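Quick one, tokens below:
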């Protein structure tokens, strides 16, 4: 798994693309990146804070924790996901990077 610092620029052109869950204890699930939003940098951090929103369909919400997600260009990444909403068969998850 790659350990370099993730930035919003890495995700900005990936909207609508699939990220596949790769976990031993969970079946492969497709997450679609639906938003990549810059956040205010109140603490003057070297990396600009940002938020990512992913959505899944047809599954029960997964618990918040770090998941391994694979993207065709970005490779395998560890991302802490928090379920933030559910509408019909769609579940939304947020990842915040400070």
């Amino acid at each position: 798994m790659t350990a370099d610092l993730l930035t919003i620029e890495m995700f900005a052109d990936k909207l609508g693309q699939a990220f596949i869950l790769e976990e031993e204890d969970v079946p492969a699930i497709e997450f679609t990146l639906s938003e990549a939003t810059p956040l205010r940098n109140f603490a003057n951090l070297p990396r600009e804070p940002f938020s990512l929103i992913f959505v899944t369909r047809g599954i029960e919400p997964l618990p918040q924790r770090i998941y391994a997600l694979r993207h065709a260009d970005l490779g395998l990444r560890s991302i802490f996901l928090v379920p933030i909403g559910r509408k019909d068969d769609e579940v939304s998850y947020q990842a915040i990077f400070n």
